[in-house]
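Q: Sequence in, structure out?
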Amino acid sequence: MSNPETPSSPRVSPRRWWPLAGAALVVFALGLAVGLLVPAVRTPGEASADAGFARDMATHHAQAVEMAMIVHARTDDPEVATLAMDIALTQQAQIGIMRTWLTQWGLPPTGSQPAMTWMRDMAGMDHGDGQPAPAAGTMPGLASKTEISQLRESIGANLNIRFADLMVRHHRGGITMVDAILSADPRPEVRDLATRMRAGQQAEITVLETLRDRLHASAPTGAPTD
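A: Exactly. Output:
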């Protein structure tokens, strides 16, 4: 039984990463500009849910951008490449918006408390997904270091399937965080962006699941199935 990741497998010519990186920098700058246009209503405190969400979702998004750029540079599937670029550009722009909020609020990009403290503090609230608050420092849906390494080392069908699997889980975790902040009566700009994130990531989950079905159906023996 052959393994598509053996040394004898054909190498995929990597895409040049700098056009996507350059585009990501542009949309990040646009995100900063959009953030600067948001009027001040009230300034969230250091331990507020608004600040915690902005910090943690920016970190969460950063991993999605990392995975998308890895796959965009290596995939041989045009649909996967297009979707990866869309995810990278959208989430990089949103990182810019959230970091601008923190600057406007006079808060540092990282807080003094462990990641997800804001969501654990809301453990008794209904986040709309029926899931318990995450453990200290744990963000829902993140890929492990091992999974990121496996993604970097994959080619062909393995690469595409791993990306679809990891990104579906990642987006579901992001939606859990969005549901939590929406239940916390956030600032108007936070509510607006979180609402758009939810709609966008749910739509991408649908696309990813359809894509994953196609990839599994056409994958050679030995491609990952989880």
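The two ends are 19 Å apart (CA to CA).
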